Amino acid sequence: QEQLVESGGDLVQPGGSLRLSCAASGFILDDYAIAWFRQAPGKEREGVSCISNSIGPTFYADSVKGRFTTSRDNAKNTVYLHMTGLTAEDTAVYYCAADSGHYCRRSTYTIRDRYEYWGQGTQVIVSS
């Protein structure tokens, strides 16, 4: 059974860092484009980043560019979201999602319907 499981969410102080993990089972992550989305209370779920398979592009939302980095460890069948310079505006539930289209596209990676598989989410709270 195909499954994505996020982990690494935590309470962190402003300016701090976290690394979120997205582990896949039942399929090979490198065959998929993997996006991170987040949803803050009372807000729409928004796309944060998208990493293509090994040879494709990576995209970031303007709100996280320069602070967040996504990477793959194919040996572990896991994708990571490295977050630095966290602010209260980054507080949200973070989700990873898999698209069998292999490549991320700047114009469509934030469209939720593109993704076949979703994780259950991991909570990030940025507060002093």
Could you describe the 3D structure shown?
By secondary structure, the chain is mainly β. Helix content is 0%, strand content 45%. It is built from no helices and 11 strands. Strands 2, 4, 5, 6, 9, 10 and 11 form a 7-stranded mixed beta sheet that branches. Strands 1-3-8-7 form a 4-stranded antiparallel beta sheet, with no helix packed on it.
Could you state the order of secondary-structure elements as H and E?
EEEEEEEEEEE
* Class from helix and strand fractions: mainly beta
Approximate helicity band: under 10%
Q: Would you identify the regions where 5 or more consecutive residues have pLDDT less than 50?
A: none
User: Overall 3D geometry?
Assistant: globular
End-to-end CA span:
40 Å
Radius of gyration: 13 Å
Please report the total strand number as a whole number.
11
Give the biggest beta sheet: 7 strands, mixed
**Which strand-content bin applies to the residues?**
over 45%
Count of separate DSSP helical elements: 0
Concise overview:
The chain is an all-beta fold. It has strands spanning about 5, 10, 20-25, 35-40, 45-50, 60, 70-75, 80-85, 90-100, 115-120, 120-125.
Topology:
Layout (H helix, E strand, L loop, with lengths): L2 E5 L3 E2 L5 E8 L7 E7 L6 E6 L6 E3 L7 E6 L4 E6 L8 E8 L17 E2 L3 E5 L2
Parallel strand pairs: 2-11
Antiparallel strand pairs: 1-3, 3-8, 4-5, 4-9, 5-6, 7-8, 9-10, 9-11
Keywords:
128 residues, mainly beta, 7-stranded mixed beta sheet, 4-stranded antiparallel beta sheet, 11 strands, globular
